[in-house]
Amino acid sequence: MSDAIRKMFDEISPRYDMLNRVLSARRDVAWRKRSVQKLPNQPLDILDLCGGTGDFLMEAQAAGRFRSGVVADFSAGMLSHVSRKADLAAIQADALALPFADASFDACLCGFGMRNLDDLEAGVRSVHRVLRPGGTFVTLEFFRPEMVVPRFFYNVLAPIAIPAVGKVFGSRKDAYEYLVRSTQRFARVGDYGLMLEHCGFEKVEILPNDFGISHLVVGTKRAA
């Protein structure tokens, strides 16, 4: 991830949560709730990868899935808001070189972060390394649109509406232009599912949210 993108996330961090709610009409909250329900129904050691301000790990706590965990993100600005919202560990980290021992976690949650990685497959392999055998990897993401509704949204509406809303709320317009561009050029969800299988995950499940505006992808680390 470039220093320019890191700086961009640092600068938008004070308004990041609010803009997510506005831009998604609060659907991001429902998507996280649905995602957490795909975790085993027991207390887990969880990595919230590309975790931003900690919303995903907080949702796991609320759902009774949390035993221990950490929010990891490349943006110090994002992480600075974690302690203001919850009593959670937070660490600045590169998703491609995670500073955790092998088999450290029962589960990994990643919300809207995989498309920001310089090397997607390396990121998936990094997650695989830190998960225990049988561990669950849950990805919530905006993949390259293929269905009619998301193609219209991302190719027609989003390039105009999302940057404009970001600017109105006093954030950086170019940050939300980046959000649209990164989605348009990201992997297709089917290809991402195949990548998970190639990297050592099984029982891969792909679930569209709201006609495919976002997708939930769940995989289980194969036992050795």
Write the layout of secondary structure elements.
Layout: H1 3-12, H2 16-24, H3 27-36, E1 44-49, H4 55-62, E2 66-73, H5 76-79, H6 82-85, E3 89-92, E4 105-111, H7 120-130, E5 131-141, H8 148-168, H9 173-184, H10 189-198, E6 201-209, E7 214-221
Parallel strand pairs: 1-2, 1-4, 2-3, 4-5
Antiparallel strand pairs: 5-7, 6-7
Helix pairs in contact: 8-9
CATH H level, superfamily name: Vaccinia Virus protein VP39
Task: Report the sheet-strand fraction.
Answer: 15-25%
DSSP helix count?
10
- Rg over CA atoms, rounded to whole Å, is 16 Å
Annotation, overall tally of beta strands = 7
Distance between the termini: 31 Å
Largest sheet: 7 strands, mixed
Reading off the top of the CATH hierarchy, the class is best stated as Alpha Beta
Mean pLDDT across residues? 91
Number of domains: 1
Assign a percent range to the helix content: 40-55%
Within the CATH hierarchy, at the fold level, what is the topology?
Rossmann fold
Strands of the widest sheet, in order across it, are: 3-2-1-4-5-7-6
SSE pattern:
HHHEHEHHEEHEHHHEE
Poorly predicted parts: none
Which structural class fits the helix and strand makeup? alpha/beta
Second rung of CATH, namely the architecture: 3-Layer(aba) Sandwich
Q: Tell the overall outline.
A: globular
Oligomer classification? single chain
